[in-house]
Each structure stands twice: as C-alpha cells, then as structure tokens.
Amino acid sequence: MSTFDQPAPVHEIRERFGFLRRSYAMLIKEFIQLKRDRVSFAMIVMLPVMQLLLFGYAINTTPHNLPSAVLLQEESDLARSVLKAMENTAYFRFLYEVHDVEDFDNLLKSGKVLFGVEIPRGFERAVRRGDKPALLVAADATDPVAASAAIGSLGMVVQTALKHDLYIGDPPEMPFEIRAHARYNPAASSSLNIVPGLVGTILTMTMLIFTALSVTREVERGTMESLLSMPIRPVEVMFGKIIPYVLVGFLQAFLIIGIGVVLFGVPVLGNLFLLALLSTLFITTNLSIGYTISTLVQNQLQAMQMSMMFFLPSILLSGFMFPFAGMPAWAQYVGECLPLTHYLRIVRAIMLKGASMQNLHFDTLALATLMLVAMTVAVTRFRRTLD
C-alpha cells in the first residue's frame, strides 16, 4: 500500500472532529446571545421590513395632487374651466383661493402650496376678443422633481379647457397662453435643493448618534453611577450632555452652508439670525431624541441600531430624497412627526425664498412641540432608569 493510501492518524481525526464540535458550540452560543439581545434581533427584522414598506407604498418619484392656490381676479366660466382642466391632469389640487397678491406670495414662501395660478381680470373677455392673454403659473422650484412633471403637463390644459367653452374639438389656434414661472430655483439646479437639505440630514444623523453613544458609553464604563453619586440632578446631567453638542451642531451647519455658498453658489436670502435660532431648536430636538434612545438601550451597539432605525424614515419621509407632497396621506402624517420634515421646510425657505418668521410659524411651532415632547420623555425615562 502506498503512502497516499494510508489512513490519517487518529490524532488528526480527533482534531477535525474537535474543530467541528467547537465551531458548533460557538455557533449555538452566538444564537443564544442574539436571542437574548432583543433590540438587535428586532432591528434585524424591522429594518428590511421598514425599507420594503416605505419604498413600496410611501415613495413616489412622480407626485400627483400637489397643493396649489389660485389668485382669482375674475369669476368666469372660462376661468373655472381652466382650473378644472388643471386638476384633471392629476398634478394640481387647489386648496386655497386668494384675491390678494401678498397672500398668494406668502402661501408659496411658507411652503403650504407648490403652485400658484393667477387668472387676470378680464381674462375671458380678452380670449373672446382674440387678444391672446397670458395665464401665470408660479411654481415653487426648490424641489425640481416635484415641479418639473406638473409644469410639463400644462401644454394639454389649453385644449381641454376650451373644448366645451369656445370650440367644439381643438381650437384653430391657441386663444391664450400659459406662462410657467419657476420661482426660487429658475434653473432647476439640484444643488440648491440638496445643500440646504444636507444641513438637516447631517445634523439629524450626528446629533442622534453622538448623544445616544455618549450616555450609553458612561453606563458601559460604570462612570454614570459615580457621576450620579455627586450632588447633581438628572436634568442637569442631561443639559450638561446636550449643550456641548449644540455647539458641535452649529459648527457642522456653518461648514455645510459655507461650503454650499462658496462652491455651489447656494444663496442665503433670509435672515441668518433667524436661521441660527431655528437651527438651535432643531439641534436640541434631535439631541433630546438621542438622549431618549440612550435610556432605552443597554449598550452602544443597540444605541447605534436604534438611531439608524429613527434616521431611516427621517430621510425617506421628510422630503429630502423624495417629494413630500407625492406621498400618501398616512406617510405624510408620519413625516409630520419627524423633526427633519419641518427643518427642511425652514432651511430651504430661509435660504432660497428669504422667508420670515411669519411664513414659518407652523413649522417652528411643530418643531418646538416635538422638542418639548422628546425632552419630557428623556427626563422621565432617565429618572426611571435611576430608580
């Protein structure tokens, strides 16, 4: 018998079986540890399910029924036919009817509507006389994706509006024209939309993670007990943890906005002090949420996982990546509960539209409410943890 046909020594066989036995024992141990770590196991299940549901049901890259307003300077059958024809394109949904230019502009600045239609006085009379009047459609182009498809649908409105009013079938020539004016971002530059949005997105991610990890790190190292043994209250611990990261958030916001202005030509048309004030409110809200997360978890890995669990719907449902107005109603309700949704409206309105507090009172109030709720939950949970 040759050397190649000789059986393996007994110790080699034992070593192979020993390797398999030890690997199997380690495998069982990891499954048991994963089973005990319920937060990590929940994240493994919930993250893919959440992504599937959000992308399958909530995300729509061609939004319809976009909120619109009309500045109606005359009441006529033709004017109503034009508005009806625009609604029939499925892109426009008229929520407001105003009779003043200032109200018209405020609705666009505040972000309550994405489109404004101005029907001038004497419009129907000018059409019947053949003067070919112009109908103005003002679009909030801070989100070019939401505005482009709706503007492209305006070409069919003229024929549809006139079929039953002045002509049977198509008119021999266009008796009026529709002039679309893209406000705040006429060139449809994506950087004007993305750079202000990145301010809120980066602040959300970093503030959540920094705070959640900061507190859980103290717990893991055992320094939290010695910290609390000192004559200091839980609320004071919380504020001491939060305030340094407010300054960090300011630095991040300053860097992003500064680079956006210098390299990408993003304008800052509004009040910088107002932007700084509302940014402070947003940063504090996210820090409070991060502090709440730290009271729910046992270690830094769980803190990171739960932060990502909150961050994922924030970027998908806030209007940063996809048009907010194109989401179904339930997704918009969820989005309204996220601080990033309101801050994106604020930062884009101040930087690109020159909006004032009068235009931003709703989103400011919503952000303040979310901050108070998050801070109350954080302090309550922290006290229960100590007890």
UniProtKB/TrEMBL annotation:
UniProt-listed InterPro entries: ABC-2_transporter_component (IPR051449), ABC2_TM (IPR013525), ABC2_TM_bact-type (IPR047817)
Q: Which UniProt keywords apply?
A: Cell membrane, Membrane, Transmembrane, Transmembrane helix, Transport
Specify one Pfam family: ABC2_membrane_3
Membrane-spanning residues: 39-59, 194-215, 242-266, 272-297, 309-331, 364-382
**Where in the cell is the protein located?**
Cell membrane
Which cellular component appears as one GO term in the record?
Answer: plasma membrane
Of which family is this protein a member?
A: Belongs to the ABC-2 integral membrane protein family.
Q: What is this protein called?
A: Nitrate ABC transporter permease protein
